[in-house]
Design brief:
Endonuclease, Chain A; four-stranded mixed sheet; elongated; two-stranded antiparallel sheet
Amino acid sequence: MKCLNCNTEHDNKKFCSKSCLTIYNNKNRVVSDLTKKKISDSLKNGAKAKEVKKCFNCGKDHINVKFCSISCKASYHNKHREVTEITRQKLSKINKGKVGHKHSEEIKKNLSNKMKEYYLNNPDKHFWTNKEKFISKPCEFFKKKLIDKNFVFIEEYTPLKDYNYSIDIAFVDYKIGIEINGNQHYKIGQSGLYLNDYYQKRHDLIEKEGWFLVELHYKTVYDKNIDEIINNIFNKLFHYDFNTNEYLNNFVNKK
């Protein structure tokens, strides 16, 4: 077929494009005498006098419309919009399972397992291996002490295959590990400070694999007897609960 407007060959339609349809309709449009008179009068009399009004939302002066801007219109309608109970139920059903909705225990477990599997397969992606992670000044201070004594160690070593636990300072050949802990690692018991449940479980799992793991509170590294503490670690005379409760309570709670 040929386009009725431009005579171009095309398939199955009167017009080859929307623009040809518009041009053709404009060419052949019939305007009534009444419409012509209205247009003529409008042009003769000029534009309608501008009327100053106040915006329904913000009260700002504006011309000819209820609102001074689209944002004011949206804000006004949102303020005065009434939501029926049926609409609320529909919205609740739509949003179920999205952000803010609590996951079931089964879903939480699945997500946890997938995350563990991902980090096991991609250990370089784990937070603890990130070079931009938070740097612990006490830990760096203790490492310098060891370097000054010519000790060679591995930082952020992962000793377990099935867990992404990493040890701050590891002497792999001797299976000796040292953790420099902040206050969040501890809980207060009847007779002093103890590792909280998560870190205690972590500690037990690592030691179960034959490691000797020393848990040092960060204030311990600044002790005047730090050289003796280091020697005791390598003689395996030192343990994370080496009667330091009194020491930790005096310094951790020090104002």
